[in-house]
Fold each of these.
Amino acid sequence: MHLSGPIFVAIEGPTGVGKTTLAQRLATRLGFQLMLDPFEHNPYLSDLYNEGAIARSSLAVKVELTFLALRVAQLHDIADLLAANTPVVADWGLIKQPLFAADTLPPAVADRVASTCAMWAPILPAPDWLVAMSAPVPILRQRIRGRERDMEQGIPDNDLLALADRFEKAFSVYPYPLIRRSAATFDSLRDIDLDALADELRGGIRAATRDHGGDARRDGPTMPASTDHRPQQNRGGRGAPSARRPG
């Protein structure tokens, strides 16, 4: 059964966890509008992977600020869809922006990106439900190889592990409704798994609708503004592209 109304579901997790595949299938199953992370529209992304370590530092600022602009713009599009009573499922959430910025930028610059996200968050649509995906590094590596994006193939395993750890920390303090799934046991291409997730979302949305007098939406920022998810050290080093992009 399809749901209607201004409902926003986002899917997040580390590179290779299967966000886009799940979003595509879940949107079809629920009858929601699909919105995909606009990472392919970032003109600096391929340069970040192709240039050396010296160039990477300056390019990273362009990459992160461009991503932020693209994502804020898409969240405005999502707000318009929700205002038109169209439910949305997206393969990303604003929660990812400070996590990746912390990996690519110097700490002071990453802090400014995080502060900018916190400034925008209260006036942008926040997911009513976040599907938090995780996976062991061997599964992430297998899926990255399988989708054959050249820019991702050189990501070191320790970078994948560091990124997965950052997402786990962010998920652990996420203050709004969250559904956990691990790619070690969940397969979005398996109908029984997809149906179970869709049913869980339908049940949660119906309960929220009852609690809010017919409106499943809630107000609030996408992420806690004061939470710092920067790693204490960059375990991936500077010699190879990080697991940061694309998400």
Amino acid sequence: MPELSSMPRPEVTADSGKPVLGAIAITRLRESDYRAVVELFRHLGPKYSCDLNDPRTKSTFDLYLADERKHGLVARLGDRIVGVILYEITPVLSIGFSHGRNDGLAVDPEFRGLGIAKLLLRSVLSHCREVGATTYMVKASNPKVISLYRSMPDLVERGIYFYTI
């Protein structure tokens, strides 16, 4: 994986009335990020909210620290985590190839629209390419989120069907 602190950073202005960002650092997920990551996902609504004190929440978070296939990146503005992406890279039966899958992406509402989600996603796609992933799957139903993925020149939509069971 490339040195994350050297990843390109968004140029952000205050034209929209949103905060002006200093340097955004993209770093690997850390044990100490647990509370902030859970809080960020709460902003996505009740389906994505979980109890900080539930051992299942913590054990799932820990998978992104310990499992060699699962990964997490956070966008830091100083000591504050303003974005997170969780993803998995798994091998496919064709030798030497793998598949990436987005497990979750959240940006603090105060910092949305500033390019943080794209910065996180580009970091993930770079990692996927490094390890030979040939596809990257995302699940999205929110029109704004779908628009984000469609705006990424690195991604070519092949179509996906997602069913609730």
Amino acid sequence: MTRDAWDARFDDFWDGVDLDDSTGARARLEVLLAERGIDDARAAYERGSLHDSLGEEHAAIPLYRAALADGLSDDLRTQATIQLASSLRNVGDASGAIALLRAVPASDPLHDAAQAFLALALHCDEKPTEALALALRTLAPHLPRYRRAVDAYAGELVKLDRVRVIAVGLLVRDGSVLLESYPANARHGEFLRAPGGGISFGEPAAVAVRREFAEELDATIDDARLLAVTENIFDTSSGRGHEIVHVFAAVAASIVAIVFATVGDGVEVADAAGPRRLVVDLGHQLVWALLAGAFAVAAVRSRWGRISQTFAVAAGILYLLFLFAVFLWP
């Protein structure tokens, strides 16, 4: 069957699907995908779209990501991007949605649709003025009259003065601090900041910092201790900012493991040579690699099982060998 014929079959499915019957909808889609016989990016996209339509955004997100990573066809990539961004917004990751939607080029046929979802994401990210201005600028070209006026008034909207309350986590290891880099844009230059973000209404700061680490870094904070509450009043090219910042000392073993598995730990023994040099140079790094693997497996399986325990025990044995090489090697 040709590509166009399969497109028509999927269109028929979506035209007739009964979303009130989730079991029947899933069964119909799986029958159609089984008939097609290719478990590829298109299949992931269609499954993600169904989860999304049923209000199962958490299940849809990894399928959208897989479809985009596995080479989804150009005519569906923007749709997948918009739907992924919408799902991210619905689960609380407005900043992730904004990043995806800003990348949709003005030449794309779905650019206006992307702008509409971007306006929603900006509003959820506590940027109501920017959201309204964007919505008006996107709407203006389609108005029968007053296009220039609406576009001009959108450009004159002034950001509302407000105090932003955020929570950040300081993760320190051997004198190094984990920071996020925010690239330069039209409103500000590049800057670094500890991972974190805005505190939602009714959300305790300690809960917010854990949520932000999960959303931004896909990492779990094992412990968060409040260090200070600071106030920042600053000026940027887009206006004055005012922040109240809850600063937490964060402990996240999974992040530490990944960092040290990839960049090393800086431990050196000047007179080490031969096998001892090999153990010193690679031993500690392999320990963190094993621990990173243990945490990764536990995250995927949603439990600390036998495989994770095996990785952790191997890391412990290797660490003892590393200590022997550093302190006791004859």
Amino acid sequence: MNIFKQGLLFSTLAAASAISIEASAQGQEIKAGEISISQGVVRPTRGGEKVGIGFLIVRNNAATADRLIAIESPIAENVEVHRASIDSGAVRQHERDGIPVPPNGEVSLPSGAGHIMFEGIEAPFTEGDTIAATLVFETAGRIPVTFRVESAPR
């Protein structure tokens, strides 16, 4: 192979690698063993807010159940999974003690049904940024993920 073709091949492979890395960095889908995580997003924060909210979908392709037992992030003092309920007309937030992920099933934490609460954040979540976190499962173990910061659809 001549030097021109080698350079072209290298450039093409480098570009393909960059696209695949960018897709991961943008939170498109992360696969680790039988677990897939997709649509990891957090909403931008305003001013001095110390709390951020995130959403994602977890798919378990295994024949046995798993359980999301913790979420960690270097940019927050604490990360919890919350569910919302209405009590006497007021919305209440409740921390969930782990999230079961059924065999060959999916758990969605979208707006309204549940969410991930990043508490004590170090800096504002700014549109276009990414937020690193680690999901901890009973069986699948630790899976690093990246949430992208984007506004809610209008």
